[in-house]
Amino acid sequence: MLQLSSSLFNYLTDEHPDTFTTTHTVHTGGEPASPTHTRRLHERRPDLTIVNGYGPAESMGFTTTYTLDPAAPALPSVPIGGPLANKYAYVLDDHLRPVPPGTTGELYLAGHGIAHGYLTQPTTTATRFIPHPYGPPGTRLYRTGDQAHYDTHGNLHYTGRTDTQIKIRGFRIEPTEIETLLTTHPHLAQATVATHPDHHGIAQLTAYAVPAETGRPSPSEIRLWLRTLLPDHMVPAFVVLLDRLPLTANGKIDKRALPVPHAGPGTGGRAPRTALERTLCDAFTEALGLSSAVSIDDNFFDLGGHSLLAARLTNRLCSALNLSLTLRDVFRHPTPAQLAAHLDAWSARAATTPEPRRARPTLRRRTDQERITS
C-alpha cells in the first residue's frame, strides 16, 4: 500500500507510473484529488484500488474516505466519501443545524482521534473545538473551516474554505502571515497574497505588492528576502509589483481583479554556449511550461519552480544526460549555467578518478587438485 499527498500522487502518475506496478492500494489526500490523474492511473491499472481520504491534523489521520470505482462515470470532482468507523462528519449551517444533501455548509468532525485542542492557544481551541450539540455530554466537535456537502449517495464533497486558509503541496498556509511579513519590508507599502494553478494544475502562491516611496525592490530581491524568513512552501512562486491594489466597491482588496502571473525568463541573460547548457535550458523551459526559452542565468525558482517541478526537471535530465542527478543539485545550482558547471566538474573528477582494482575471483579447485592436496 502507498499513502501519498495528492500533489505527489499526480507527479508519480505523470512521471513514474511504474511506481504503481506492484501496488494493490493507494491512499491519497491532503489536497483535493485530481479526477484527471485518478482516471489516467485507472486506465493503466483498472485493478488498482485508489482511496481518496480527508482528515486534518486535528483528527489524527483520515476521518472520511472514498474508494474510486474505475467503471463509474467520470465525476467533475473526487468525493471525500463518508466517515470511518467510530468517526463522524457533520455538515452544519451557521446555527449548527444539519443541512440537507446538496446544500453546502461547514464540515465538523467528531469521534475517535479528535484532538483536545491546541497547546498554549486557549482562544483558538475554544473557537475550533466546541461542545457537541448531538453527542454525549462532554464531547466536542472540531470545526474544520472547510465547506462541504453530502450527495444523495451519502458521500461528502469538499467545496472550499470558509476562511482565507489555503493549502500548498499539502501544507496549510495562512496568507495573512505572508502579507503581514511583506509589509514589514522597508520598501513595500501594501501587499496581498493569492493562489493560481500552474500548468500542471498545482496551486502556487503569488504575492502582489505596492512599492513604497523609499524604493522599488525587484521581485527576485523580494523572494530572496522572503526565503531567509519563511519555509520553502510559504515563499510565493511569483511576486508581482503593482502601482495600487484593486479594490471592491466596499473598499476591500478585489483578489479576482489581480492579474494572473505568467512565468517567463526573468533576466534576458546569456544564451547557451555549449550543448550541455542548451540541454539544460530546454529542460528548464519544459519543466516550467514556458513559451520561450530561458537563459543560462535564469533561476529555476525565480521562474515559478518548486520542489515538485524540480523533481520533474531532475527526472528529465537523468534520462536525457544518462547520469545521476539529485534534487539537492538543482537547489544548490538553480541556473543552467551553475548546473552545467557543476556537472562539468563532476565529469572531470570522474574521469581522473582511477578505477578501483577488481578483486581476483576465487577459483574452485578441480577434483584431481583436491585429491592431490588432501
UniProtKB/TrEMBL annotation:
- Which keywords are on file for this protein? Phosphopantetheine, Phosphoprotein
Which residues does the UniProt record annotate as the domain Carrier? Answer: 271-347
Pfam families found in the cross-reference section = AMP-binding, AMP-binding_C, PP-binding
According to its UniProt entry, the protein's GO biological process terms are:
amino acid activation for nonribosomal peptide biosynthetic process; antibiotic biosynthetic process; monocarboxylic acid biosynthetic process; secondary metabolite biosynthetic process
What cofactors does the UniProt entry give for this protein? pantetheine 4'-phosphate
TM ranges: none
Keyword presence, Cell wall biogenesis/degradation: no
Basic and acidic residues bias spans = 365-374
Task: Report whether Transcription shows up as a keyword of the record.
Answer: no
Which molecular function GO terms apply here? phosphopantetheine binding
Query: Family, per the entry?
Result: Belongs to the ATP-dependent AMP-binding enzyme family.
What is the protein's name according to its record? Answer: Carrier domain-containing protein
What species does this protein belong to?
A: Streptomyces agglomeratus
Supply the source organism's classification.
Bacteria, Bacillati, Actinomycetota, Actinomycetes, Kitasatosporales
